[in-house]
## 1
Amino acid sequence: MKTVRVQYFAALREQAGCREETLATTAATLAVLYAELQRSHGFTFPAERLSVAINDDFSGWSAPLADGATVVFLPPFAGG
Amino acid sequence: MFRLSRAPLKPDTLRRRLPGEGAGACVCFEGRVRDRNRGRTVRLLEYEAYDRLAEKEGGRVVAAAKKKFGLKAAVCVHRIGLLPAGEAAVWVGVLADHRAAAFDACRYIIDELKARVPIWKKEHYARGAAEWIAPGDTRGSKAPSGKKA
């Protein structure tokens, strides 16, 4: 079991009902963590539509999840 | 240079960040809040960013443009917060020796920003509803759902 901090922005923030949360998880990768959160929060985005960041930089979905990491799942961008 | 701004953008001040240096072409782009989208009247746009990563990735976009187009200077600032229709949401300014590189670089920066920088917008409509916008989301683009109630 490891502890991770998850931050949310925009549509995911509203669906989660919070800006961030600290979780205990056994998920080995970001993909597994998102699947868990999707079940618990009812997120409407399939993982294919999101990008993901660990410790304030972009990451791949298969990246291992380390204890103490800060994770952000990013909805499709819409700047400009 | 890339940064996010919670205060209104000031193009005249930003343009001064592109000093002469004898370069022959300065191209600036100002993106404003459009009052209509997908057949609906937009009253406000709400911009939100993942600040730390947006500033990092925005900086990478501007640095890549400077290298790719041989720019003398490049500045990009994006507004965050609630913006009424007509207000400037993003400003890009570049300085190059010749116009072709300046036009191309300005276009490159705004296109890459939209694709790569974690910024989101929520449209607030005249009738009170609000929606986060996702590019490629074509709901309502052909048949606006704003029925005359």
## 2
Amino acid sequence: MRRPVHVLLAFLTWQATPALAALDAKAVGQLASEDSEEKIAAIRQLVQGGDPTAQRVLQALGDDGLQLSGGKVVIVDGERVFDAVTGEELKPGLEGGEGISINNRVRRELTAALAALRLFDPDRGARLTAAQELTAGADLAMAPLLARALESEADGQIRQLLVLAHAQASLKAPDAATRLAAVRALRASGNPGVRGLLAALLDERAEPDARVRTEARASIATIEHRMAIGEIVGRVFSGLSLGSILLLAALGLAITYGVMGVINMAHGELLMVGAYSTFAVQTLFGRYLPRALDWYVVAAVPVAFVAAALVGIVIERTVIRFLYGRPLETLLATWGLSLVLIQSARTLFGAQNVGVANPSWMSGGIQVMANAVLPWNRIAIIAFSLGVLALVWLTMSHTRLGLFVRAVTQNRAMAGCVGVPTGRVDTLAFAVGAGLAGLGGVALSQIANVGPDMGQSYIVDSFMVVVLGGVGQLAGAALAALGLGVAAKFLEGLAGAVIAKIAVLAFIIIFIQKRPQGLFALKGRFLED
Amino acid sequence: MDDTPRTPGISRLLGVLPGTGRSALAAFGLVAFVLLPGLHLFTSGKSPLHVSDYVITVGGKVMCYAIVAVAMDLAWGYGGILSLGHGLFFALGGYAFGMYLMRSIGRDGVYQSDLPDFMVFLDWKELPWYWRGSDHVLWALALVVLVPVAIAFAFGFFAFRSRIKGVYFSIITQALTYAAMLLFFRNETGFGGNNGFTDFKRILGFPITAPATRVALFMLTAATLAAALLIGRSLVTSKFGRVLAAIRDAESRAMFLGYDPLWYKLFVWTFSAVLTAVAGALFVPQVGIINPSEMSPASSIEIAIWVAVGGRGTLVGAVVGAVLVNLAKSWFTMAFPEFWLFFLGLLFIVVTLLLPEGVVGLWRRLLRGRAPA
């Protein structure tokens, strides 16, 4: 507990040294007063100045480092002693100082005051915590300081908090006009906290002025409307990001199942291979290229693709090749493969989840509304999966391999007759499908836990996407994945995550009854068997 | 069956068995009804001939699994319907009977309440409506049959009517059991959430862990298994079984010949579900716990491998497979827990690649003097 405080003090000292502006000596002296009221008044006065040196004094007061020595208020920092007013070091040290103690009421005031001062800290994180502390309860006396902080603040998230804190402070103003202005100012915010604040004003006892009450009601309506929109935006967005993960998982499946009719139950484990490759690349970067650590994800993309594709080729050559035309046996054998892969991951990397960190450029997000933040990692995943979709589409429609793959999908025997090497197409298509799962693993590692069992939870979902979208249909898979993702997130808001999942599964089961061929079916006249 | 003379009841059932089958059944009866129970109840714990609690419990458990395997084999081996959701029916049977067992704990639970402990824990004041009547054993037994019938019939009717088959059907059954598992994991569903039902005290008034109760349950399970085999055998050798096999091998052709596949498949599917549920109901009092993990897709797909190992399309193969795999599982999870998944995974691969007819198929080939493939 002491150490961080010392570090902070040292940092503050270093900061304050160049501009050794002396504080108001009277106010500093008043800090040593016996009376709590006097102390609070002194703290408020010191904060008003917005002087960084005041922070040091107040911090010391909070840490019991402020003493009264010979009628002079001094800061004691270990062995060294500083004059509280000027900030200069005193030599010779300390003689019989008397500690200045504070009670809880003063301490509360002190916490708010320190937070207010930290609003001018150059570090964004410090300002953010300070603003968060202030929204918990800002005093009228701080309103001017908050207004000043608002003027200089550029960060959107902190500004939101400051607006809230400022309005909260101004709402305590004795003057009805100021309160009215504050209520109006709050209308622009979409913050859920503000709504609660305004709702308290609707009571006649809390707010005597009728105009302010009416205005508060109007502001609440506006804010609620905006919050509702923000919530919908948030839902759609998280639904899209869930959908894009499903899309990445299902794209590979759509190819393997579509082309070869192979149900690959180990597909989820190929996702896992991709995610562990990401982890391995991250570890390697951490060891050999720590400076480029932020870009390990970029390097992980091809590595994961190749790793998963290689595993896919091995699977195809050793197991699946012998089971063509026997889908149920393929299902069982690939399930066995998935068990082997899970246990291999457990043996190699341990049963615990491994830590894959977001690179710093992926943390944070865009604040589109007060209650809707779009995190960068999810934006990156959506963009990534759309990019992969585009690439797959291009490959399928504009390359020779794609042509062969489509030919084999439509009529394997005929394609073989006109010279398409169907065996090699199978292997390649399977490798591509596996590689796509690996890419899904990279994306997944950025938002979910990476562990041996991670693939299991996606396999049912990704099959649902393929079934819903129609076998072998890229457009169907894309639409089904995004639609399922958004629907799941909306239902989640209505009924909770589990019920949402059950509802989606039930919907698919019913949907399949109506349209067994999925959303998009290949047109043709053929009879199974 | 057409040429079988009209003889009543059990002898007609036995009539479907070949001679070796009848002697095997007699041997099984001798072991399950006389030898093991006798050695368990009437020898002292120190005697080398003594059969321990463990053997009786594991034996009962494995026989429950064998019943499930027979049910699975009827649907998959003879009907061509690979269900990846039989765990659901197993668990439903278990839960239905578990409700009765929970209610017969009475006030002996941790909270000494009339309600099951987990309900007290959730601060529920009365039983939910679907628990009504669960303190009557007959109602519980009716539920064991009726709930799976209702679900299997409704699901199967719509699925088979839309001609959903093969892998599609398997995937959807998997989704079904997965959804049910999520539902049962919720505390609010009213079936004990994660923990399910456990800590049973008595069954029909008898203490549930007493040796005599255990042996009774063991013998009941053995009888059910034998009955399942006999009924299954008569089913598959009947005209119904022939049509079913025809539908399995060429559904369109069977249809063109005038058979409606819907009812054949629906019957075998529903029957299989009920048989599985009965096994689940026998499983719960012997093992002493039922929880939603029985519905996980992984445990359902494991059932398929029992049948595949034994040899699908032969009822005795299903039993052999269930026994072999589960004994292997018991041994592995005790001796080399970390290798069990490797073994199980490789079993899936090796059996499908090299032993498409399972152990029984291999045995038959060896008997015929031909080298196995």
